[in-house]
Each structure stands twice: as C-alpha cells, then as structure tokens.
Batch of 2 targets.
Target 1
Amino acid sequence: MKNPAQLYLAAAATILERIQATQLDALAAAADICAHTIASGGLVHLFATGHSRMFVEEMFPRHGSFPGFHSIVELSLTNHNQVVGANGQRQAMFLEHVEGLGKVILRNFVLTPPDSFLIFSNSGVNEVVVEVALEAKRLGLPVIAVVSVEHCTASSPKHSSGQRLIDIADVVLDNCTPAGDAMVHVEGLNDPVGPGSTIGAAALTNALKCLIAEKLTALGEPPIVLTSAYFIGSQASQAQFDAAYDDYRRRVKRVYG
C-alpha cells in the first residue's frame, strides 16, 4: 500500500498528465494574447488573492522569466505570514469577499489596450477576483483565468453579478485540480491533506511563459530573460538582469502615469 507521500506524488503526476492532455489549445490561445500585448509595448497584468499570489511571482521576476508582466498584488489580500493578530488570515479572507475593493485597486493604474490580464484563483468565485475581471473587460482588456474548473463549476457564484471567473474570461486555463484542492486521505484522519492547485497552476504558469517566449522570438521581439550565471557567467548574468529590470521600468512607467 502506498504511503501518503506516494499518494500525493501520484495525484500530482495525474494533474500534470491532465494538463498535457487537455490544456495545450488553451495555453496556445493565452500565449497569443500575452505575446501580442508584450510585442505591442503593453503589459500583461497579473492579479491574485490568497495563496494564488505565488503564481504572480512565478511568472516574473525569477530566473527564466522576462519583462512584459506587471504584478498587482495587495498585501492585505495575500500576506499570510502572520496568521493571527494584525494583518492576520481572518482579515485577508474577509477582504477578498468585499465588493468594490477590486475597482478601488485597479483605480490606481492606467489600464489601456494592448494590455491584458492574467488572473489566478483556484475557486474563481470570490468577489474581488471576479470584480477585477469584470473591470478589466469593461476597459476593453482580454482576460485569461487560471482556475480549477472542477472546483469553480461546483461552487456557487458569490459576486452580485452572478458570474464566476470562468464566465468572464476570454481564455480559461484549467489547473486540473480536483474540487476541494486537498488530494490525500490519511487513515484515521477525517480531513484530506495535500493541496494540488500549486502543482497545476505553477505548471501552467511556466508552460505559458515558454510559449510566450517562443512567440515573441518568432515575432522578432526576443525577450530579455533573467538568466542564471550557470549558463552565461556571473558578469553577463548581472548585465542581463540589469537590462531586464530597465526594460521592466520603461514598460511600467505608463501604468502609474
């Protein structure tokens, strides 16, 4: 009999297999949107609440990534270091259900075509992420959603519009995680453990990144990649990081104008 670690790894492998079997067309469509945005001088805005913030940072900046993405991350919605007390988890979980907050957040930025939005949310139903998607669409920007389609469709809409993220997005990327997220049942323990959405969403994020890099290069706009010194040496790596950060600064000036 497999132990819980083996059960989790097997479930994680199943997620990756499902993504490869079902998500390639959606990944290509999402990459087309993002590549068009970046090649046209725009920004792919990244938004998430809760633990989905991880995938915003996974997209950029880190080794093997490149400018063209702009993170919109609220600490009040994503900072889980202090579980209780000031800036605690209860407050963050309360705020992601407050209608109106999404519009207030986006009011801080100048958002115009050819920009686009990439929104991460495992459930796809909380009020703030739905409102951000609705506002992006109102501004004429395409929306890509990364969700668990199984969990999202099994969940009742919470936003007053009656819509889920998958109802609004132009492209939906399914992280192929089972509803409820936790995947492993331990003998003698009533509740499942071992969330799978981290595996699925991270895989989609990096697969999408690779496709975007390919499309930008084919368009004659090869991205400036944050490249490890392992590949090109420390001096060239530092120079490339500086060039990428300078490119990022140039791109984001407009959104704070």
Target 2
Amino acid sequence: MLRLEIVEVYRERGGIRETARRLSISRNTVRKWVRQRYREEGEAGLYDRSPRPKRSPCSTPPEVEERVVELKRERGWGRRRIAYALE
C-alpha cells in the first residue's frame, strides 16, 4: 500500500521534503497521510473513506418524503402535481 510506504519513508528520512522527493509526490500529500491521517488515527487512517457526508442539514424531512412517495404510488402524479399538492 503506497500510503503505508509514505509513512515508512517519512520515518526513515524524518522530513516531509525528503520523503516527497524520494517518492516523487507532493509535500501536501505527505502531510495529509503522515501528519493528518496516520498521527491521528494510526494505520486505520490510511484506508479509503466514504465521500458521503456525515450529515445533511438541508435534506427533506422524512414525513414529507413519505407523503411524496405515497402520492406517486397512489395517484401516479409527477413532480409538479406533487409539489402543488404539498404547498
């Protein structure tokens, strides 16, 4: 795994610039994987993360979502009619 290699080379070399130069990557990449992820979370921080947001404050409330699905299923209405009915 390249990310683990970044951490290992950083430990050997002891510096961001030297690690980046040896692996032909940017210093920001070394910072991200060593300082941010590895130091805070250990080896688990080197694995991919989901791009999905942790929360969605602007999402549609569940009650409204249920009502929309209900109108679509029962009456076969499209988005304009459903929006008009929910006003």
